[in-house]
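Exercise 7. Given the components listed, write out the predicted structure of the assembled complex. Treat all entries as one system.
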Amino acid sequence: DQQVKQNSPSLSVQEGRISILNCDYTNSMFDYFLWYKKYPAEGPTFLISISSIKDKNEDGRFTVFLNKSAKHLSLHIVPSQPGDSAVYFCAASTRTGANSKLTFGKGITLSVRP
Amino acid sequence: EPEVTQTPSHQVTQMGQEVILRCVPISNHLYFYWYRQILGQKVEFLVSFYNNEISEKSEIFDDQFSVERPDGSNFTLKIRSTKLEDSAMYFCASSERGGQYGYTFGSGTRLTVV
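Answer.
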């Protein structure tokens, strides 16, 4: 069941440059998309989300872009910092209130080189 | 900042034994969840809980699993007869308005079944 796909397992970028993390989905019923960051030995931490009625949401250094026709979203981190090094999960949810479970991708390991 | 607390951080149990994983969600949150992550795999939904009942469960959440909110503050996951394949990181999460707005995850309990 690969409804949410993160096809690249890892990404390495130089400090100060842009990190672009990609995510694809197959279920057209998804209404919300979220990005989580996870450090080792910690739980996932919510970063940013976007509703399917929008194509962009920005929060500080983090911007999420959604292309519904392509069923694709991406997370941009500008500028990248060494502290951003972590595993990033893309997740999706349908608008079903209490039943709004998240379907996660496998995650991508981001390494930001000083 | 409010956090979701999980205990224990690591539990080792013998196959066939019962385990109870404990969670204290954020106090004003209404939606509660259990997820798990088998090593090297994606985070998978187990169960959601709202208004003192299960609102949705996955195929993984079979008769061996149960959840309870015994006293209005704790939220527990019980595995009745553990199997080797139950070895995973189990994450509890809570949300004020439902998963599409982002959960707060706990740091997880690493369950090792031997």
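Discussion: Chain A touches chain B at residues 31-32, 34, 36, 41-46, 49, 89, 91, 93-95, 97-107 (CB under 8 Å). The two ends of chain A are 37 Å apart (CA to CA).
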